[in-house]
Design a protein that fits this description.
TfoX_N, alpha+beta, TfoX/Sxy family protein, 6-stranded antiparallel β-sheet, about 30% strand, Yope Regulator, Chain: A
Length: about 100
């Protein structure tokens, strides 16, 4: 199953108060960028973030999910996507802990 455009549009609307939110479609799924950094993966209509310390603190009971079938990389699943203020706070607090994408040289 891939992520629906409606779900992605909903998330973009939820995050519309943040400057610098963009997304890129990849094989039916999406990467969500915040000011140039990968902030989340949107896979199978799930909002997944890296388990950086601020995300773990803000989502202490969140389940870990994988973005692929081998299950090696685990991400925190954000289930409270209806809460705009929380999503905004989450991405803002995570920003400094997220790496910039590697350059392609």
């Amino acid at each position: 199953m891939s992520t629906s455009k409606d779900y992605m549009d909903f998330l973009l609307d939820q995050l519309s108060s943040l400057d610098g939110i963009t997304c890129r479609r990849m094989m039916g799924e999406y990467l969500l960028y915040y000011r140039g950094k990968v902030a989340a993966y949107i896979c199978d209509d799930r909002f997944l973030v890296r388990p950086v310390p601020s995300a773990i603190r803000l989502l202490p009971d969140a389940p870990y999910d994988s973005i692929n079938t081998d299950g090696r990389k685990k991400y925190l699943r954000v289930d409270c996507v209806d809460d705009r203020d929380f999503l905004t706070q989450l991405l803002e607090e995570m920003y400094d802990e997220l790496p910039f994408p590697k350059s392609k040289q």
